[in-house]
Amino acid sequence: MSSKLTVCGVCEYRNISKPSVVWCSECDGGLCEGCKEHHAASKGSRNHSIVPVSEYQKLPSGILEITQTCLKHSEKYQIFCKKHDTPCCRRCVTETHNDCKEIDVIDDVIQNVKSSNAFLEMEQILAELSGNLQRIRKDRQENIKSLMENRAIIEKEVQQTRKLIDNHLDTLQESLIKELYAAEEKESTKIKHTISSIQENERKISESQTNLD
C-alpha cells in the first residue's frame, strides 16, 4: 500500500517512477501532477473523487487496507452481492455468485448510498465538525499570535525599565564619585594643613636646639 500511495500508478505501468500527489479511491491508485490533469479531463474519470495523498495517508489503517481490486483475480470490483455482503469482480460473479439474485452494480450502490438521508446527514455532521475544527484552529492560532504580541510588549517594557534603571544607576554612580572626590579633596586639604603645622613646629624646635648648643 505504501508504494501505491507514493508512486503514480499510471506512470509506474509505463515503467516511469513519479511521485503521486493525489489518490483516487475509484481507480484505487495514486496520480502524479500530470496524470491528475489527464484524469480530471478524461470522460471516464472526470467525476471521480480525489484527495491529496498527504490527507489520504492520515486515514485509519483499517480504511487504508481496503482495496477495490479482487485479491483472487486481480480485477476491479464491479458487483456487490447482497446475499454474501461482499464486493465481486466479473470472474467472482461467474465462478461463485452466478446463482445469487441480489446483486447490484457497485457504482449504483455507491450512488444510492450517497443520496440516502443517512449519508446526507453524515455529510452535514462532518461539515459542521470540519467547521468547528477550523474555528478552533483559527482560535488557537490567534492565541499564539496574541501570546507573541504580549511577549513582545512585555519584552519592550523590560528593556525600557532596564534602560531607566541603568540611567539611574549611572547618574547615582556619577554623583557618588563626585562626592567621593570632594570628600577626598577636603580631607587631603585638612591633612596638608596639619602636616604644614607639624613641619613648622619641627622647624622651631630644631632652631631652639641649635640655640641651646
UniProtKB/TrEMBL annotation:
Superkingdom per UniProt: Eukaryota
Q: Which UniProt keywords apply?
A: Coiled coil, Metal-binding, Zinc, Zinc-finger
Zinc-finger in keyword set: yes
Cross-referenced PROSITE patterns, in alphabetical order?
A: ZF_BBOX
Task: Identify one Pfam family in the record.
Answer: ANCHR-like_BBOX
Question: What sequence ranges are listed for the domain B box-type?
Answer: 3-53
Q: Name one GO molecular function term.
A: zinc ion binding
The name this protein carries in UniProt is B box-type domain-containing protein
